[in-house]
Specification:
CATH topology of the largest domain in chain B: Aldehyde Oxidoreductase, domain 4
Number of helices of chain A: 6
CATH topology of the largest domain in chain A: Ubiquitin-like (UB roll)
CATH class of the largest domain in chain A: Alpha Beta
Order of helices and strands of chain A: EEEEEHEEEHHHHHEE
CATH superfamily of the largest domain in chain B: Aldehyde oxidase/xanthine dehydrogenase, molybdopterin binding domain
Largest sheet of chain B: 7 strands, mixed
Number of domains of chain B: 4
Distance between the termini of chain B: 67 Å
CATH architecture of the largest domain in chain A: Roll
Oligomer: heterodimer
Number of strands of chain B: 26
Distance between the termini of chain A: 33 Å
Number of strands of chain A: 10
Strand content of chain B: 15-25%
Largest sheet of chain A: 6 strands, mixed
Structural class of chain B: alpha+beta
Strand order of the largest sheet of chain B: 3-5-1-12-9-10-11
Largest interface: A-B, 56 and 57 residues
CATH superfamily of the largest domain in chain A: Beta-grasp domain
CATH class of the largest domain in chain B: Alpha Beta
Radius of gyration of chain B: 27 Å
Amino acid sequence: MTRSKGRGTLKAVNGKIDVVLNVNGKDLALQVAPVEYLLDALRREGFKGVKRGCDNGDCGTCTVLLDGKPALSCMMFAAQAHRRSVVTIEGLGTPCEPHPIQTAFVEAGAVQCGFCIPGMVLSAKALLDENPDPDESAVRHALDGNLCRCTGYVKQVEAVRLAAKKMKKTAERKSAPTILASPRGRLVK
Amino acid sequence: MNVSDKREFTVVNQRVLKIDSLGLACGAALFTDDVDVRGLLVGRLLYSPHAHARIRKIDAKAAKAVPGVLAVLTHEDLPRVRHTTAGQGYPEPSPYDTLILNDKARYVGDRVAAVAAETAEAAKEALSKIKVDYEVLTPVFDTMEAMKEGAPVIHDETDSKNIPDARHNVCAKFDFEVKGSEWFSEADVVVDQWYKTHWAQHCAIEPHVTITFFDADGRLVIRTSTQVPFHVRRIVAQSLKLPIKSIRVVKPRIGGGFGSKQEIVLEPVCAALTLATRRPVKIELTRKETFISTRTRHPAVLRIKSGARRDGAITDAHMEIYCDNGAYGPHSLTVMMCAGSHTLPMYQAGNTRFIGRTVYTNLPVAGAYRGYGATQGFFAWESQMDLMAEKLGMDPVEFRRKNYIRLGEGSPVFKAMGEGREGVEQKIASCGMDACFDKGLSAIGWREKKERYKSQAGPKRRGLGCAGLMQGSGIPEVDMASASLKMNEDGSFNLHMGATDLGTGSDTILAQIAAEVLGVGVQDIIVLSSDTDLTPFDVGAYASSTTFISGNAVKKAALHAREQIVKVAAKILDAKAEDIDLKDGKAVAKSGRSCALSEVANTALYYHDQHQIMGVASHYARTSPPPFAAHFAEVEVDTETGQVTVLDYVAAVDCGTAINPTLAEGQNDGAVLNGISYALAEEMAFSPSGAMTNASFRDYKIFSTADAPPLKTILVPTYEPNGPFGAKSVSEIGINGPLPAIANAIYDAVGVRLFAPPFTPDKVLKALKEKR
């Protein structure tokens, strides 16, 4: 039995728990094992942008946003995300409709192998939601949990500051709701 | 003007956006494990807990009986084909000393059995039920001890090949000498010093992962995270006795490699599980498995004895290196040779000697790692340069300037030492070393800071250090790359090449080279790389070869297509072929008349004398032009805690023409930070019984954003006549600088010299205590 505060009590039936995760703005009803990690559940459901780098909470490449805050999906059970909002990299933007942070990473040349980038972009998103105009040290602090072996972080720090500028401009212009796309290709509001 | 020699560019040398970066930033690009394969089995490996043990018997019966288990393989089930896991050109200059699963465990982490099961749980249970009867043998862990008479013999099998002295655990040896005069007869000062570098790992964030399955026609498909797809195909065929034609290797996006994926680690065993079960199998290593059972950097014990005249001219260069290859010998000869061949030509000494040995020990297996021996060699040499300068009373920068190789000069080392065999004679055709030093010195504020730091007080002291570096660009007369380009109706091109982008950006820079030749934009080049069924051959991404060798192949293929385009355009425009230029997606005649490339393509495909415009070419290089670099570190040493903090780091690099300055900077930044992290923090630690004790990112610390010092990469343009549009390599050289530059800076700050990295607080404190 898993107790989720304020979200009811979950019961395992035949070793499975019925949970509802709000992934990228859409409710997703799943049957998970009590000890199934959120990372495994998300990848099984097709959210392959969530990467596995260490399975030990050390590298940050599996970062998702849980109720808007960065969380390591390899360190929590899927059931713990019951009735909570999970945003994966696919929920932030797509190649057809990228988020300004994603565009900024491209423009700054911050993407090399790209394996750590989904987690890093989401850490950046959480930072910029709280602090729209971070200085370099704030960016370095926010990305500290996302290891990258390719870039030396130089252009990634630049990318987040470029994203801040872009988002400021967008915020001034735009008030339309964000369209989110699931990895299965369905558009959801 | 001949397009081949142009020096003003429209696409090359531009900051074109990396072509796959948006897909990657959106999490849409597919890595090896990002596909759902129906019926996929979980493959897992059983590792030896002993550093040295003979397997008397393996009982897999109970494991096979676990529900959901489809196969349990041991050495008894697999062909006994000795091979090397080194993804090198054939025949590989590494000993054939391993089996897919060995009957003798030679390190903690050596693979003993493999399991395929329906679920991870079943696979795990099966592993726990394999009974292995070990005869535990005495291990040897020390590089120098392993060579001694009477040390345990690690490779006592009789069917291995190309081990020069198995009885003394020597898996590679190479000696070389040029002598101009009696040794040290012309030297006014002589410095004789030993150095020792440590075990470290690549730490690509994507662990090793392979998926194997049979396609509808019964061919074995290997989808794998590799730097060397064609070598994977060859070595899987060799080790499992399969025909090459039955295998297809597909390289998707790769989450970093740095040399670790130049190694054929998982593919043969995963394929064996698919052969045994007729089912798709995935082996994805955990981080711990990656640490204990993939590859490492060769630790090395080095001795440099060098002499110089009072005027600063280096007269003698004696270098000894003893590399530790751990339990098996991939890259044993070549890494050791590169420690000399990439360092000794840098400073011209009349007497030059190299003595190299690589030895087996009962520790994890070393392999290719960015820098490839040069990292170890330059730590010793560039520390030695400071020691010599001090003894001579010369400024370390001036001492280097007086000695480093210059434009037009050669070195007997180039000819004597190749990679695993004789090298090629070459003269330096591009060298930006002077400018690297000038720009780097000024960017770090060398002179002002040196002056300022002369009088320091308090427990925290600052200092500056520098290092001069070189590397190669591919392996001359060994590496080959090829590419093909076909033209589509709209004037776009499909560029198919074997070159392997593992996150380096090679897909982008190779598209830029093609676009430059064809007078189109990079968006008109559609890249497909590294699928052994679909793309022509390339040795793969290693030895700093892709820009130089694959780049030349792509350039030639584009020139080949261009010839055909111009011929068709000549008819359309009623002009001479030699009077036609390609630019802005058009063929333009001298008369000013022009036609779109789409018209050329449509004419060729549909209207007149129909044919496919298609360029194909290979490139095989006769030289390996070195990139050059000068690195500068400013450090602060806390004399109370021993903590070394890098305050600023500047790396000026001459990579010829940077095909894409943004990506070249990124390559260099990444290499430099990897080097800094290696110099200050990273070290694989082992228990007294040889088990790695820090096999996680929590315990094996690699630098994060908060740890990283300010880094500055300065690109110093030169023009390498043998490179595509003047380009040389850039990917590896940057990692060679931090060890010596930081060591020299620590000495400058507090007057202690460390000869064995990493420069951790305990070592610094100990050295400070000894000094007092």
